[in-house]
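Sequence only, no structure available. Ideas?
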Amino acid sequence: MNSLKTLLAFTFLFILFNACRNTKNPEVSISAKFDNAIYHLARSYITTLPELDLDKFSENEKKIIELGKSLYYEKKLSANNTVSCATCHDISKYGVDNMALPIGDLQQIGTRNTITVFNTFLYGEQNWDNKFKTVEEQAIGPIFAKWAMAMPDTIELLNRLDEDKYYRQAFDEAFPSSKSSITINNLKKAIGAFERILLTPSRFDEYLKGNLSVLTPKEKLGVYSFVMNCKSCHSSALVGGGFAIKYPIFGNHFDYSNIQNSDPGNLMLQKIMKICLFSKFRS
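Reply:
I predicted one. C-alpha cells follow.
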C-alpha cells in the first residue's frame, strides 16, 4: 500500500513538473503608437553614454591610457606592495570588490563601500562625500589614505616608480614635454585617462539612439514603468547619480546597517537637507 502511494506521488510530481516546464509565458505585444510613446518618454529623461572610439585617439593619448592601466594594477603604489586600485575596483567585478567594506594594504577595514569606476568620470563629484571633482583628483586620494593603500608620502611613491625601468620609459614616452615625467600630476593624468575609457554602452543605448527593435516588448514595458516611477531620481546618461542626498533621509545609519559607527558623510549636505526638510514640515 505504501509503495502504491509512493508511486502515485512520484507520478503526480512528474506530471506537475512537465506541465510547469512546458508552460510558456504569454507573448507581450504593444501597439506601434505606444511603442513610439515609450521611446520618446525615455528619451525625455535618459540620454546615451558618450561615444568611445579608441581608433580616434592620438598615439600619445593611447600611451597615456596604457600607462594609466599599468598604474591602475600596480601594487607598488601601496605601502606594503599588496594592493592596487584594481584590488577594490576590480574590472571583472563591475568595478567594485563585492565587499561591504574594502580591506586596505595593512589589512585595515575601510569606512565606506567601494564605488564602481565604470562611467564614474561622468559624475560632477567623486566619492560618497563629493570630496573630489574629477577622477584625476580622486585617483591619488586612496594611494595616501591610511585606510586604503597607505603610501607614506609622495617621495616614496615617486622613488618607487623612478627605480622601475618600465615606468621611467613609459612616463617619458607618455609625457615627452615634461621636464621631469614621473610626477604626481602626470600619475593622476594617466590613471584618470584610463578610467575615462571605462564606459558600459548597452542595448539600451542603441534603443535611445533610435533602434527600437533592439529591445523586446516586455523590456519596453519595463522602460515605461521605470521612467514613470523612478525618473525623479534616476535620469540622464547615468540613470541617476546626478546629485547627492543625505543617507539615510529618515532614521539613523544603525537602523539599516546594525553598525554603531555612524558615517557623517557630507556634513554641509546634511545641514542643507535638514534645513529643507524642516522648512517643508513647517509650511
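The longest helix spans residues 2-22.
Hope that gets you unstuck.
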